[in-house]
């Protein structure tokens, strides 16, 4: 079990380097739950993400979706912005305990 946790941590650390630029979607357009702050956002088909999905037993029908890694909800978006210093996204599926969010689209806060 420790090996699995260490491997997952190593994969997340590796993927955290490649964060895409925001596309400018407004945060108010997120209708699937709170906007998430993710350390990185990658394609589900990328090597590290697909390996992580497999280890966690998550099967996706479409590997062209973006997956947020190590995410937490942003609960307050004020006039001065938010506390997200990584990638703010709106995701379709946030039910994996913050480790992975599926179907993410970058948003502008």
UniProtKB/TrEMBL annotation:
Per its record, what are the GO molecular function terms?
structural constituent of cell wall
Q: Does the keyword Signal apply?
A: yes
One GO location term (cellular component) = fungal-type cell wall
Origin: domain of life: Eukaryota
Q: Where in the cell is it found?
A: Secreted, Cell wall
In the UniProt record, does the keyword Signal occur?
A: yes
Keywords associated with the record: Cell wall, Disulfide bond, Secreted, Signal
Q: Which Pfam family, any one of them, does this sequence belong to?
A: Hydrophobin
Q: Which InterPro entries match?
A: Class_I_Hydrophobin (IPR001338)
Instruction: Tell me which positions the record assigns to the signal sequence.
Output: 1-18
Family note: Belongs to the fungal hydrophobin family.
What is known about its subunit structure? Self-assembles to form functional amyloid fibrils called rodlets. Self-assembly into fibrillar rodlets occurs spontaneously at hydrophobic:hydrophilic interfaces and the rodlets further associate laterally to form amphipathic monolayers.
Which named protein is this? Hydrophobin
């Amino acid at each position: 079990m420790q090996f699995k946790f260490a491997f997952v941590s190593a994969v997340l650390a590796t993927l955290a380097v490649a964060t895409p630029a925001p596309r400018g979607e407004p945060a108010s357009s997120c209708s699937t739950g709170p906007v998430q702050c993710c350390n990185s956002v990658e394609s589900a088909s990328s090597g590290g993400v697909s390996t992580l999905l497999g280890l966690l037993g998550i099967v996706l029908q479409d590997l062209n979706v973006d997956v947020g890694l190590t995410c937490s909800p942003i609960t307050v978006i004020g006039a001065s912005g938010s506390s997200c210093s990584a990638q703010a996204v709106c995701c379709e599926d946030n039910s994996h305990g913050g480790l992975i969010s599926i179907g993410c689209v970058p948003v502008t806060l």
